[in-house]
Amino acid sequence: MGKSVRETFRVPAEPDLKAIDPCGRPIGPKDKSAAADDMVDRGSRLDHLQEALYAQATGGGRRAVLLVLQGMDTSGKGGVIRHVGGLVNPQGLHIATFKKPTPEELAHHFLWRIRNQVPRPGFIGIFDRSHYEDVLVARVESLVSEEVWRRRYDEINAFEAELTEKGVTVLKCMLHISPEEQAERLLARLDDPAKRWKYNPGDLDARAKWWEYMQAYADAMRACDSDTAPWYVVPSDRKWYRNWAVAALLDETLTEMDPKFPQPDFDVDAERARLASLVI
Amino acid sequence: MGKSVRETFRVPAEPDLKAIDPCGRPIGPKDKSAAADDMVDRGSRLDHLQEALYAQATGGGRRAVLLVLQGMDTSGKGGVIRHVGGLVNPQGLHIATFKKPTPEELAHHFLWRIRNQVPRPGFIGIFDRSHYEDVLVARVESLVSEEVWRRRYDEINAFEAELTEKGVTVLKCMLHISPEEQAERLLARLDDPAKRWKYNPGDLDARAKWWEYMQAYADAMRACDSDTAPWYVVPSDRKWYRNWAVAALLDETLTEMDPKFPQPDFDVDAERARLASLVI
Fold it and tell me: Which CATH number fits domain B5-277: 3.90.640.20, 3.20.20.150, 3.40.50.300, 3.40.50.720?
Protein backbone atom coordinates (compact mmCIF):
# COMPACT_ATOMS: atom_id res chain seq x y z
CA MET A 1 0.00 0.00 0.00
CA GLY A 2 1.29 3.44 -0.94
CA LYS A 3 1.91 6.40 1.26
CA SER A 4 -0.95 8.65 2.24
CA VAL A 5 -1.03 12.25 1.05
CA ARG A 6 -0.19 13.33 4.58
CA GLU A 7 2.82 11.03 4.79
CA THR A 8 4.03 12.20 1.40
CA PHE A 9 3.99 15.90 2.18
CA ARG A 10 4.95 15.75 5.85
CA VAL A 11 7.97 17.88 6.51
CA PRO A 12 11.13 15.76 7.04
CA ALA A 13 12.61 15.67 10.53
CA GLU A 14 15.57 17.69 9.19
CA PRO A 15 13.96 19.95 6.60
CA ASP A 16 16.13 20.91 3.64
CA LEU A 17 13.94 23.02 1.39
CA LYS A 18 16.50 22.98 -1.41
CA ALA A 19 16.00 19.23 -1.59
CA ILE A 20 12.23 19.49 -2.07
CA ASP A 21 11.19 20.21 -5.65
CA PRO A 22 8.59 23.05 -5.80
CA CYS A 23 7.57 21.57 -9.13
CA GLY A 24 7.32 18.00 -7.83
CA ARG A 25 4.23 15.81 -8.06
CA PRO A 26 5.18 12.96 -5.71
CA ILE A 27 1.61 11.65 -5.41
CA GLY A 28 -1.78 12.13 -6.99
CA PRO A 29 -2.82 13.47 -10.38
CA LYS A 30 -0.20 13.97 -13.04
CA ASP A 31 -1.98 16.71 -14.93
CA LYS A 32 -4.40 19.54 -14.49
CA SER A 33 -7.38 17.76 -15.93
CA ALA A 34 -6.97 14.70 -13.70
CA ALA A 35 -6.60 17.05 -10.73
CA ALA A 36 -9.81 18.86 -11.68
CA ASP A 37 -11.69 15.56 -11.80
CA ASP A 38 -10.34 14.51 -8.43
CA MET A 39 -11.21 17.92 -6.95
CA VAL A 40 -14.86 17.38 -7.83
CA ASP A 41 -14.93 14.16 -5.79
CA ARG A 42 -12.92 15.61 -2.95
CA GLY A 43 -15.04 18.73 -3.01
CA SER A 44 -18.27 16.89 -2.51
CA ARG A 45 -16.76 14.72 0.20
CA LEU A 46 -15.21 17.73 1.96
CA ASP A 47 -18.49 19.57 1.75
CA HIS A 48 -20.26 16.64 3.38
CA LEU A 49 -17.59 16.23 6.07
CA GLN A 50 -17.68 19.93 6.82
CA GLU A 51 -21.45 19.86 7.16
CA ALA A 52 -21.23 16.93 9.57
CA LEU A 53 -18.57 18.76 11.59
CA TYR A 54 -20.81 21.82 11.76
CA ALA A 55 -23.87 19.73 12.62
CA GLN A 56 -21.95 17.92 15.32
CA ALA A 57 -21.12 21.25 16.94
CA THR A 58 -24.81 22.18 17.08
CA GLY A 59 -25.24 18.99 19.11
CA GLY A 60 -22.52 20.03 21.56
CA GLY A 61 -19.46 18.77 19.64
CA ARG A 62 -16.27 20.70 20.32
CA ARG A 63 -14.25 19.84 17.23
CA ALA A 64 -12.95 22.25 14.62
CA VAL A 65 -10.16 22.30 12.05
CA LEU A 66 -7.46 24.91 11.61
CA LEU A 67 -5.56 25.04 8.34
CA VAL A 68 -2.54 27.33 8.59
CA LEU A 69 -1.15 28.63 5.30
CA GLN A 70 2.34 30.03 5.10
CA GLY A 71 4.57 30.78 2.15
CA MET A 72 6.52 33.52 0.43
CA ASP A 73 4.62 36.26 -1.41
CA THR A 74 2.79 34.88 -4.47
CA SER A 75 3.09 31.31 -3.18
CA GLY A 76 -0.70 30.99 -3.42
CA LYS A 77 -2.21 31.40 0.03
CA GLY A 78 -5.07 33.42 -1.47
CA GLY A 79 -5.48 30.95 -4.31
CA VAL A 80 -5.82 28.06 -1.87
CA ILE A 81 -8.46 29.94 0.09
CA ARG A 82 -10.39 30.61 -3.09
CA HIS A 83 -10.09 27.16 -4.64
CA VAL A 84 -9.99 24.88 -1.60
CA GLY A 85 -12.08 27.04 0.74
CA GLY A 86 -14.50 27.39 -2.16
CA LEU A 87 -15.21 23.66 -2.06
CA VAL A 88 -17.21 23.88 1.16
CA ASN A 89 -20.14 25.90 2.43
CA PRO A 90 -18.86 29.40 3.22
CA GLN A 91 -21.03 29.39 6.33
CA GLY A 92 -18.73 26.81 7.91
CA LEU A 93 -15.50 28.62 7.07
CA HIS A 94 -13.66 31.11 9.22
CA ILE A 95 -10.91 32.89 7.32
CA ALA A 96 -8.40 35.11 9.07
CA THR A 97 -5.72 37.12 7.32
CA PHE A 98 -2.78 38.27 9.39
CA LYS A 99 -1.01 41.32 8.05
CA LYS A 100 1.73 43.42 9.54
CA PRO A 101 0.64 43.77 13.19
CA THR A 102 -1.18 46.95 14.15
CA PRO A 103 0.05 49.03 17.12
CA GLU A 104 -2.74 47.47 19.20
CA GLU A 105 -1.66 43.97 18.21
CA LEU A 106 1.97 44.79 18.93
CA ALA A 107 1.01 45.96 22.39
CA HIS A 108 -0.18 42.42 23.16
CA HIS A 109 1.57 39.06 23.27
CA PHE A 110 2.14 37.78 19.72
CA LEU A 111 -0.47 35.05 20.17
CA TRP A 112 -3.21 37.48 21.24
CA ARG A 113 -4.47 38.27 17.76
CA ILE A 114 -4.16 34.62 16.81
CA ARG A 115 -6.25 33.40 19.75
CA ASN A 116 -8.99 35.82 18.72
CA GLN A 117 -9.32 34.00 15.41
CA VAL A 118 -9.27 30.36 16.50
CA PRO A 119 -12.20 28.65 14.75
CA ARG A 120 -15.20 27.91 16.91
CA PRO A 121 -16.53 24.33 17.17
CA GLY A 122 -17.88 23.12 13.83
CA PHE A 123 -15.79 25.49 11.73
CA ILE A 124 -12.89 25.05 9.37
CA GLY A 125 -10.58 27.96 10.06
CA ILE A 126 -8.05 29.02 7.46
CA PHE A 127 -5.19 31.30 8.45
CA ASP A 128 -3.61 33.34 5.66
CA ARG A 129 -0.27 33.80 7.44
CA SER A 130 -0.27 33.16 11.15
CA HIS A 131 1.70 33.13 14.38
CA TYR A 132 4.57 31.70 12.33
CA GLU A 133 5.23 35.19 10.98
CA ASP A 134 6.53 35.88 14.47
CA VAL A 135 9.38 33.44 13.93
CA LEU A 136 9.82 34.22 10.22
CA VAL A 137 9.66 37.91 9.33
CA ALA A 138 10.29 38.81 12.97
CA ARG A 139 13.53 36.84 12.82
CA VAL A 140 14.73 37.73 9.32
CA GLU A 141 14.00 41.41 9.78
CA SER A 142 15.40 41.38 13.34
CA LEU A 143 12.19 42.79 14.76
CA VAL A 144 12.95 40.95 17.99
CA SER A 145 16.08 39.47 19.52
CA GLU A 146 17.14 35.90 18.83
CA GLU A 147 16.34 35.01 22.41
CA VAL A 148 12.76 36.17 21.87
CA TRP A 149 12.07 34.39 18.60
CA ARG A 150 13.70 31.20 19.79
CA ARG A 151 11.49 31.17 22.88
CA ARG A 152 8.48 31.53 20.61
CA TYR A 153 8.94 28.01 19.25
CA ASP A 154 8.02 26.68 22.69
CA GLU A 155 5.19 29.14 23.05
CA ILE A 156 3.81 28.07 19.69
CA ASN A 157 4.08 24.41 20.60
CA ALA A 158 2.27 25.03 23.87
CA PHE A 159 -0.43 27.02 22.08
CA GLU A 160 -0.98 24.39 19.45
CA ALA A 161 -1.10 21.65 22.08
CA GLU A 162 -3.78 23.69 23.81
CA LEU A 163 -5.74 23.85 20.54
CA THR A 164 -5.53 20.09 20.18
CA GLU A 165 -6.72 19.74 23.74
CA LYS A 166 -9.74 21.96 22.97
CA GLY A 167 -10.69 19.84 19.98
CA VAL A 168 -9.13 21.90 17.19
CA THR A 169 -7.29 19.71 14.68
CA VAL A 170 -4.36 21.70 13.35
CA LEU A 171 -2.62 21.23 10.02
CA LYS A 172 -0.02 23.58 8.62
CA CYS A 173 1.02 23.96 5.01
CA MET A 174 4.07 25.69 3.68
CA LEU A 175 3.38 26.57 0.06
CA HIS A 176 6.78 25.93 -1.44
CA ILE A 177 7.66 27.89 -4.57
CA SER A 178 10.92 28.49 -6.39
CA PRO A 179 12.41 31.99 -6.60
CA GLU A 180 12.12 31.76 -10.40
CA GLU A 181 8.38 31.11 -10.16
CA GLN A 182 8.02 33.99 -7.73
CA ALA A 183 9.76 36.33 -10.18
CA GLU A 184 7.26 35.35 -12.89
CA ARG A 185 4.29 35.86 -10.62
CA LEU A 186 5.52 39.22 -9.35
CA LEU A 187 6.07 40.33 -12.93
CA ALA A 188 2.55 39.23 -13.83
CA ARG A 189 1.23 41.35 -10.96
CA LEU A 190 3.14 44.34 -12.26
CA ASP A 191 2.01 43.80 -15.85
CA ASP A 192 -1.71 43.27 -15.27
CA PRO A 193 -3.61 46.35 -13.98
CA ALA A 194 -6.21 44.04 -12.41
CA LYS A 195 -3.45 42.34 -10.40
CA ARG A 196 -1.36 45.36 -9.43
CA TRP A 197 -3.21 45.87 -6.18
CA LYS A 198 -1.72 42.59 -4.98
CA TYR A 199 1.79 43.90 -5.48
CA ASN A 200 3.66 45.55 -2.67
CA PRO A 201 7.16 46.98 -3.08
CA GLY A 202 8.02 45.35 0.24
CA ASP A 203 7.66 41.97 -1.49
CA LEU A 204 11.01 42.59 -3.16
CA ASP A 205 12.69 43.31 0.14
CA ALA A 206 11.58 39.90 1.37
CA ARG A 207 12.61 38.32 -1.94
CA ALA A 208 16.10 39.75 -1.51
CA LYS A 209 16.40 37.69 1.68
CA TRP A 210 15.05 34.50 0.11
CA TRP A 211 17.52 32.06 1.60
CA GLU A 212 17.31 33.64 5.04
CA TYR A 213 13.58 33.08 4.87
CA MET A 214 14.07 29.47 3.76
CA GLN A 215 16.34 28.93 6.75
CA ALA A 216 13.74 30.47 9.04
CA TYR A 217 11.01 28.27 7.54
CA ALA A 218 13.11 25.14 7.88
CA ASP A 219 13.95 25.93 11.51
CA ALA A 220 10.35 26.78 12.39
CA MET A 221 9.04 23.59 10.81
CA ARG A 222 11.71 21.51 12.54
CA ALA A 223 10.90 23.07 15.91
CA CYS A 224 7.11 23.07 15.59
CA ASP A 225 6.18 19.91 13.75
CA SER A 226 4.27 17.29 15.70
CA ASP A 227 1.83 14.47 14.98
CA THR A 228 -1.01 16.56 16.38
CA ALA A 229 -0.02 19.77 14.57
CA PRO A 230 1.92 18.59 11.56
CA TRP A 231 3.72 20.69 8.96
CA TYR A 232 3.36 19.82 5.30
CA VAL A 233 5.53 21.15 2.49
CA VAL A 234 3.35 21.55 -0.59
CA PRO A 235 5.05 21.86 -3.99
CA SER A 236 3.44 25.03 -5.28
CA ASP A 237 5.04 26.04 -8.55
CA ARG A 238 2.05 24.46 -10.29
CA LYS A 239 -1.11 26.09 -8.98
CA TRP A 240 -3.37 23.18 -9.84
CA TYR A 241 -1.12 20.76 -7.99
CA ARG A 242 -0.90 23.02 -4.95
CA ASN A 243 -4.68 23.31 -4.75
CA TRP A 244 -5.15 19.61 -5.20
CA ALA A 245 -2.56 18.80 -2.53
CA VAL A 246 -4.09 21.08 0.11
CA ALA A 247 -7.59 19.79 -0.67
CA ALA A 248 -6.30 16.24 -0.32
CA LEU A 249 -4.57 17.00 3.00
CA LEU A 250 -7.77 18.55 4.34
CA ASP A 251 -9.83 15.66 3.01
CA GLU A 252 -7.60 13.04 4.67
CA THR A 253 -7.63 14.99 7.91
CA LEU A 254 -11.39 15.38 8.04
CA THR A 255 -12.00 11.83 6.91
CA GLU A 256 -9.93 10.60 9.83
CA MET A 257 -11.83 12.89 12.21
CA ASP A 258 -14.99 11.21 10.94
CA PRO A 259 -17.53 13.77 12.17
CA LYS A 260 -21.04 12.43 12.71
CA PHE A 261 -24.42 14.06 12.49
CA PRO A 262 -25.75 14.39 16.04
CA GLN A 263 -28.61 12.34 17.37
CA PRO A 264 -31.80 14.37 17.79
CA ASP A 265 -32.55 15.46 21.36
CA PHE A 266 -36.28 15.42 20.62
CA ASP A 267 -38.87 12.75 19.87
CA VAL A 268 -39.02 12.58 16.08
CA ASP A 269 -42.42 10.88 15.92
CA ALA A 270 -43.95 13.33 18.37
CA GLU A 271 -42.66 16.22 16.25
CA ARG A 272 -44.11 14.66 13.11
CA ALA A 273 -47.48 14.47 14.84
CA ARG A 274 -47.26 18.09 16.06
CA LEU A 275 -46.35 19.23 12.56
CA ALA A 276 -49.25 17.30 11.01
CA SER A 277 -51.66 18.92 13.42
CA LEU A 278 -50.41 22.43 12.69
CA VAL A 279 -52.27 23.34 9.53
CA ILE A 280 -51.79 27.02 8.74
CA MET B 1 -37.44 48.59 -21.33
CA GLY B 2 -38.44 46.10 -18.64
CA LYS B 3 -38.14 46.45 -14.92
CA SER B 4 -34.88 45.69 -13.21
CA VAL B 5 -34.62 42.78 -10.80
CA ARG B 6 -34.47 45.28 -7.97
CA GLU B 7 -37.62 47.06 -9.07
CA THR B 8 -39.42 43.76 -9.50
CA PHE B 9 -38.72 42.43 -6.03
CA ARG B 10 -38.80 45.72 -4.11
CA VAL B 11 -41.30 45.53 -1.29
CA PRO B 12 -44.49 47.51 -2.06
CA ALA B 13 -45.14 50.67 -0.05
CA GLU B 14 -48.01 48.85 1.65
CA PRO B 15 -46.78 45.30 1.88
CA ASP B 16 -49.41 42.57 1.73
CA LEU B 17 -47.56 39.30 1.87
CA LYS B 18 -50.69 37.31 1.04
CA ALA B 19 -50.73 39.09 -2.30
CA ILE B 20 -47.18 38.06 -3.20
CA ASP B 21 -46.91 34.54 -4.60
CA PRO B 22 -44.10 32.56 -2.91
CA CYS B 23 -44.07 30.43 -6.04
CA GLY B 24 -43.99 33.38 -8.45
CA ARG B 25 -41.36 33.96 -11.12
CA PRO B 26 -42.10 37.56 -12.10
CA ILE B 27 -38.76 38.04 -13.90
CA GLY B 28 -35.78 36.02 -15.05
CA PRO B 29 -35.40 32.33 -15.87
CA LYS B 30 -38.48 30.18 -16.15
CA ASP B 31 -36.84 26.90 -15.21
CA LYS B 32 -34.03 25.46 -13.18
CA SER B 33 -31.73 24.81 -16.09
CA ALA B 34 -32.01 28.35 -17.45
CA ALA B 35 -31.38 29.64 -13.93
CA ALA B 36 -28.26 27.47 -13.62
CA ASP B 37 -26.91 28.88 -16.89
CA ASP B 38 -27.56 32.43 -15.78
CA MET B 39 -25.94 31.76 -12.40
CA VAL B 40 -22.69 30.83 -14.14
CA ASP B 41 -22.57 34.24 -15.83
CA ARG B 42 -23.67 36.11 -12.75
CA GLY B 43 -21.24 34.11 -10.66
CA SER B 44 -18.23 35.09 -12.70
CA ARG B 45 -19.34 38.73 -12.81
CA LEU B 46 -20.04 38.77 -9.07
CA ASP B 47 -16.68 37.20 -8.40
CA HIS B 48 -14.98 39.90 -10.45
CA LEU B 49 -16.98 42.71 -8.84
CA GLN B 50 -16.24 41.37 -5.39
CA GLU B 51 -12.53 41.19 -6.16
CA ALA B 52 -12.57 44.80 -7.37
CA LEU B 53 -14.42 45.86 -4.21
CA TYR B 54 -11.82 44.07 -2.09
CA ALA B 55 -8.95 45.51 -4.13
CA GLN B 56 -10.41 48.99 -3.86
CA ALA B 57 -10.39 48.68 -0.08
CA THR B 58 -6.69 47.81 -0.10
CA GLY B 59 -6.21 51.16 -1.84
CA GLY B 60 -8.13 53.01 0.87
CA GLY B 61 -11.68 52.47 -0.42
CA ARG B 62 -14.36 52.41 2.28
CA ARG B 63 -17.14 50.58 0.51
CA ALA B 64 -18.68 47.27 1.51
CA VAL B 65 -21.96 45.45 0.94
CA LEU B 66 -24.32 44.06 3.53
CA LEU B 67 -26.89 41.49 2.47
CA VAL B 68 -29.46 40.88 5.20
CA LEU B 69 -31.38 37.61 4.98
CA GLN B 70 -34.60 37.15 6.86
CA GLY B 71 -37.34 34.57 6.55
CA MET B 72 -39.27 31.95 8.45
CA ASP B 73 -37.50 28.69 9.38
CA THR B 74 -36.63 26.62 6.29
CA SER B 75 -37.09 29.63 4.01
CA GLY B 76 -33.56 29.13 2.74
CA LYS B 77 -31.23 31.59 4.44
CA GLY B 78 -28.58 28.89 4.73
CA GLY B 79 -29.17 27.78 1.15
CA VAL B 80 -28.64 31.31 -0.14
CA ILE B 81 -25.39 31.60 1.80
CA ARG B 82 -24.18 28.33 0.32
CA HIS B 83 -25.27 28.91 -3.27
CA VAL B 84 -24.97 32.69 -3.64
CA GLY B 85 -22.14 33.23 -1.16
CA GLY B 86 -20.42 30.29 -2.85
CA LEU B 87 -20.20 32.27 -6.10
CA VAL B 88 -17.50 34.59 -4.77
CA ASN B 89 -14.11 34.20 -3.14
CA PRO B 90 -14.71 33.15 0.48
CA GLN B 91 -11.89 35.48 1.52
CA GLY B 92 -14.07 38.47 0.66
CA LEU B 93 -17.15 37.23 2.52
CA HIS B 94 -18.10 37.94 6.09
CA ILE B 95 -20.96 35.77 7.28
CA ALA B 96 -22.68 36.37 10.59
CA THR B 97 -25.41 34.19 12.03
CA PHE B 98 -27.61 35.70 14.70
CA LYS B 99 -29.23 33.18 17.00
CA LYS B 100 -31.24 33.67 20.13
CA PRO B 101 -29.29 36.39 21.98
CA THR B 102 -26.90 35.26 24.70
CA PRO B 103 -27.11 36.80 28.18
CA GLU B 104 -24.15 39.00 27.25
CA GLU B 105 -25.87 40.18 24.11
CA LEU B 106 -29.11 40.83 25.99
CA ALA B 107 -27.22 42.97 28.45
CA HIS B 108 -26.35 45.34 25.60
CA HIS B 109 -28.46 47.45 23.25
CA PHE B 110 -29.98 45.23 20.55
CA LEU B 111 -27.73 46.72 17.88
CA TRP B 112 -24.53 45.97 19.80
CA ARG B 113 -24.03 42.47 18.46
CA ILE B 114 -25.03 43.67 15.00
CA ARG B 115 -22.48 46.50 14.96
CA ASN B 116 -19.77 43.99 15.83
CA GLN B 117 -20.46 42.15 12.58
CA VAL B 118 -20.72 45.01 10.10
CA PRO B 119 -18.53 44.07 7.12
CA ARG B 120 -15.24 45.89 6.87
CA PRO B 121 -14.37 47.83 3.71
CA GLY B 122 -14.00 45.51 0.72
CA PHE B 123 -16.19 42.75 2.14
CA ILE B 124 -19.59 41.39 1.28
CA GLY B 125 -21.28 40.72 4.59
CA ILE B 126 -24.18 38.31 4.79
CA PHE B 127 -26.41 38.30 7.84
CA ASP B 128 -28.31 35.09 8.53
CA ARG B 129 -31.06 36.77 10.57
CA SER B 130 -30.28 40.23 11.85
CA HIS B 131 -31.43 43.20 13.91
CA TYR B 132 -34.85 42.61 12.37
CA GLU B 133 -35.35 39.71 14.77
CA ASP B 134 -35.69 42.42 17.40
CA VAL B 135 -38.90 43.64 15.75
CA LEU B 136 -40.07 40.19 14.65
CA VAL B 137 -39.63 37.45 17.26
CA ALA B 138 -39.29 40.10 19.98
CA ARG B 139 -42.71 41.45 19.00
CA VAL B 140 -44.56 38.21 18.29
CA GLU B 141 -43.26 36.54 21.44
CA SER B 142 -43.79 39.71 23.50
CA LEU B 143 -40.17 39.73 24.63
CA VAL B 144 -40.38 43.51 24.88
CA SER B 145 -43.25 45.97 25.13
CA GLU B 146 -44.90 47.45 22.05
CA GLU B 147 -43.40 50.81 22.90
CA VAL B 148 -39.94 49.27 22.78
CA TRP B 149 -40.26 47.39 19.50
CA ARG B 150 -41.98 50.31 17.81
CA ARG B 151 -39.14 52.62 18.78
CA ARG B 152 -36.72 50.13 17.26
CA TYR B 153 -37.92 50.93 13.74
CA ASP B 154 -36.43 54.40 14.11
CA GLU B 155 -33.30 53.02 15.68
CA ILE B 156 -32.89 50.60 12.80
CA ASN B 157 -33.40 53.34 10.25
CA ALA B 158 -30.82 55.51 11.98
CA PHE B 159 -28.38 52.61 12.14
CA GLU B 160 -28.81 51.73 8.47
CA ALA B 161 -28.43 55.38 7.47
CA GLU B 162 -25.18 55.38 9.41
CA LEU B 163 -24.04 52.31 7.47
CA THR B 164 -24.81 54.03 4.18
CA GLU B 165 -22.87 57.06 5.38
CA LYS B 166 -19.87 54.83 6.16
CA GLY B 167 -19.92 53.32 2.67
CA VAL B 168 -21.81 50.10 3.39
CA THR B 169 -24.44 49.41 0.75
CA VAL B 170 -27.32 47.62 2.44
CA LEU B 171 -29.83 45.30 0.80
CA LYS B 172 -32.36 43.22 2.67
CA CYS B 173 -34.15 40.14 1.44
CA MET B 174 -37.19 38.50 2.93
CA LEU B 175 -37.24 34.92 1.71
CA HIS B 176 -40.94 34.44 1.24
CA ILE B 177 -42.27 30.89 1.52
CA SER B 178 -45.74 29.48 1.89
CA PRO B 179 -46.77 27.64 5.04
CA GLU B 180 -47.41 24.55 2.90
CA GLU B 181 -43.84 24.60 1.61
CA GLN B 182 -42.55 25.05 5.15
CA ALA B 183 -44.48 21.99 6.28
CA GLU B 184 -42.85 19.91 3.55
CA ARG B 185 -39.39 21.15 4.40
CA LEU B 186 -39.84 20.58 8.13
CA LEU B 187 -41.05 17.07 7.41
CA ALA B 188 -38.01 16.46 5.22
CA ARG B 189 -35.80 17.55 8.11
CA LEU B 190 -37.55 15.12 10.41
CA ASP B 191 -37.37 12.25 7.92
CA ASP B 192 -33.72 12.53 6.90
CA PRO B 193 -31.19 11.72 9.66
CA ALA B 194 -28.61 13.94 7.91
CA LYS B 195 -31.03 16.88 8.13
CA ARG B 196 -32.43 16.35 11.62
CA TRP B 197 -29.80 18.57 13.21
CA LYS B 198 -31.40 21.50 11.43
CA TYR B 199 -34.73 20.84 13.10
CA ASN B 200 -35.65 22.58 16.31
CA PRO B 201 -38.93 21.92 18.12
CA GLY B 202 -39.19 25.68 18.59
CA ASP B 203 -39.69 25.98 14.82
CA LEU B 204 -43.23 24.70 15.29
CA ASP B 205 -43.99 27.30 17.94
CA ALA B 206 -43.08 29.99 15.42
CA ARG B 207 -45.04 28.19 12.71
CA ALA B 208 -48.14 28.24 14.93
CA LYS B 209 -47.95 32.05 14.86
CA TRP B 210 -47.44 32.24 11.09
CA TRP B 211 -49.78 35.12 10.38
CA GLU B 212 -48.57 37.13 13.35
CA TYR B 213 -45.10 36.80 11.92
CA MET B 214 -46.32 37.84 8.49
CA GLN B 215 -47.85 40.95 10.04
CA ALA B 216 -44.62 41.72 11.85
CA TYR B 217 -42.63 41.26 8.63
CA ALA B 218 -44.99 43.50 6.67
CA ASP B 219 -44.84 46.23 9.32
CA ALA B 220 -41.05 46.05 9.63
CA MET B 221 -40.58 46.23 5.87
CA ARG B 222 -43.01 49.14 5.61
CA ALA B 223 -41.26 51.02 8.40
CA CYS B 224 -37.68 50.26 7.37
CA ASP B 225 -37.63 50.29 3.59
CA SER B 226 -35.67 53.07 1.88
CA ASP B 227 -33.86 53.62 -1.37
CA THR B 228 -30.52 53.33 0.41
CA ALA B 229 -31.48 50.23 2.43
CA PRO B 230 -34.20 48.59 0.39
CA TRP B 231 -36.24 45.53 1.28
CA TYR B 232 -36.88 42.89 -1.34
CA VAL B 233 -39.45 40.12 -1.12
CA VAL B 234 -38.01 37.05 -2.81
CA PRO B 235 -40.40 34.26 -3.83
CA SER B 236 -38.73 31.28 -2.19
CA ASP B 237 -40.89 28.21 -2.61
CA ARG B 238 -38.63 27.23 -5.48
CA LYS B 239 -35.07 27.01 -4.21
CA TRP B 240 -33.47 27.55 -7.62
CA TYR B 241 -35.53 30.69 -8.19
CA ARG B 242 -34.75 32.05 -4.75
CA ASN B 243 -31.01 31.57 -5.28
CA TRP B 244 -31.16 33.10 -8.72
CA ALA B 245 -33.13 36.11 -7.45
CA VAL B 246 -30.75 36.90 -4.59
CA ALA B 247 -27.72 36.48 -6.87
CA ALA B 248 -29.35 38.83 -9.37
CA LEU B 249 -30.14 41.43 -6.68
CA LEU B 250 -26.55 41.31 -5.48
CA ASP B 251 -25.25 41.47 -9.03
CA GLU B 252 -27.34 44.54 -9.88
CA THR B 253 -26.32 46.21 -6.64
CA LEU B 254 -22.60 45.62 -7.13
CA THR B 255 -22.76 46.49 -10.81
CA GLU B 256 -24.22 49.86 -9.91
CA MET B 257 -21.53 50.39 -7.26
CA ASP B 258 -19.00 49.79 -10.03
CA PRO B 259 -15.94 49.14 -7.86
CA LYS B 260 -12.59 49.84 -9.53
CA PHE B 261 -9.17 48.34 -9.06
CA PRO B 262 -7.02 50.97 -7.35
CA GLN B 263 -4.21 52.79 -9.07
CA PRO B 264 -0.77 51.67 -7.89
CA ASP B 265 0.93 53.97 -5.40
CA PHE B 266 4.35 52.88 -6.64
CA ASP B 267 6.31 53.31 -9.87
CA VAL B 268 5.57 50.22 -11.91
CA ASP B 269 8.59 50.54 -14.21
CA ALA B 270 10.94 51.10 -11.31
CA GLU B 271 9.59 47.96 -9.63
CA ARG B 272 10.03 45.96 -12.83
CA ALA B 273 13.67 47.08 -12.93
CA ARG B 274 14.20 46.21 -9.24
CA LEU B 275 12.67 42.79 -9.82
CA ALA B 276 14.84 42.14 -12.88
CA SER B 277 17.96 42.98 -10.87
CA LEU B 278 17.00 40.66 -8.01
CA VAL B 279 18.20 37.30 -9.27
CA ILE B 280 18.04 34.76 -6.45
Answer: 3.40.50.300
